[in-house]
């Protein structure tokens, strides 16, 4: 498990020096309660409903998921 980094630390900004757009987008989504809830619902769904949930999630957030069979 990742150890939390204190945002007040002088080293905190260095974490983001190598981030590209995809990294920042992932951080945004990871911290979004709306996204996390929608993703949890999609994971919990089964069969055709799961596919619908992931399509809805992808459409809303502009994502592409590789679904496994």
Layout of SSEs?
Layout: H1 21-31, H2 33-44, H3 47-61
Q: What would you note in describing this structure?
A:
Helix 2 runs antiparallel to helix 3 (47-61). The chain has one domain. It is elongated, with a radius of gyration of 15 Å. It has 69 residues and is mainly α. The protein is built from three helices and no strands. The protein starts with 20 loop residues before the first helix and ends in an 8-residue tail after the last helix.
Short key terms for the protein model shown above:
mainly alpha; single chain; 69 residues
Task: Give the end-to-end Cα distance, rounded to a whole number of Å.
Answer: 28 Å
- How many structural units, i.e. domains? 1
User: Percent helix among the residues?
Assistant: 55-70%
How many helices? The count is 3
| Mean pLDDT rating | 86
Please provide the ordered H/E string of secondary-structure elements.
HHH
Number of strands: 0
> Which runs of at least 5 residues are low in confidence (pLDDT < 50)?
none
Find the structural class using helix and strand composition. Answer: mainly alpha
How much beta, percentage-wise? Answer: under 5%
Please summarize the sheet with the most strands.
none
